[in-house]
């Protein structure tokens, strides 16, 4: 991102994005539709979630955020939690 955009995002959005729920609604362009995962079973989805949580617990390296730059480990965890919270809001209950 251009430097002026990064500065504005840090000043105006960083705290909000680390402490409040993220709003769904970003639409990927058609050229990126291959990034959208297929539906998965509950069992497979839970296993993938466990693997991701385990990796987040064990991996200490964090890349700079595209908009916010270098984040502390706590800020990265907060951002990941907000991001996961938004994605988990799409989970559809399965009735036995």
Going by helix content, strand content and strand pairing, the class is mainly alpha
Multimeric organization: single chain
Count all strands and give the number: 0
Low-confidence stretches: none
The global form is globular
Q: What is the mean predicted local confidence, pLDDT?
A: 85
The helix/strand series, from N terminus to C terminus, equals: HHHH
* Rg on CA atoms, Å: 16 Å
- The helix tally amounts to 4
* Portion of residues within helices: 40-55%
Total of domains? 1
Main sheet properties: none
- C-alpha end-to-end distance: 46 Å
**Share of residues in strands:** under 5%
Feature tags:
4 helices, mainly alpha, 0% strand, 96 residues, 51% helix
Describe it for me?
The model has no long low-confidence stretch (mean pLDDT 85). Helix content is 51%, strand content 0%. The chain is mostly helical and 96 residues long. The chain is globular and about 50 Å long. The N and C termini lie far apart (46 Å). The protein has one domain. It is built from four helices and no strands.
Chain-wise SSE layout:
Blueprint lengths: L2 H10 L1 H6 L22 H17 L14 H16 L8
Q: What is the compact description of this entry?
A:
This protein is mainly alpha-helical and 96 residues long. The chain has one domain (1-20, 41-96). The protein is built from 4 helices and no strands.
């Amino acid at each position: 991102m251009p430097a002026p955009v990064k500065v504005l995002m840090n000043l105006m959005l960083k705290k909000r994005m680390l402490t409040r729920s993220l709003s769904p609604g970003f639409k990927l362009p058609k050229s990126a539709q291959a990034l959208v995962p297929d539906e998965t079973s509950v069992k497979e989805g839970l296993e993938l979630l466990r693997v991701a949580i385990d990796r987040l617990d064990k991996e200490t390296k964090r890349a700079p955020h595209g908009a916010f730059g270098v984040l502390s480990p706590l800020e990265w965890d907060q951002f990941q939690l907000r991001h996961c919270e938004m994605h988990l809001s799409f989970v559809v209950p399965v009735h036995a």
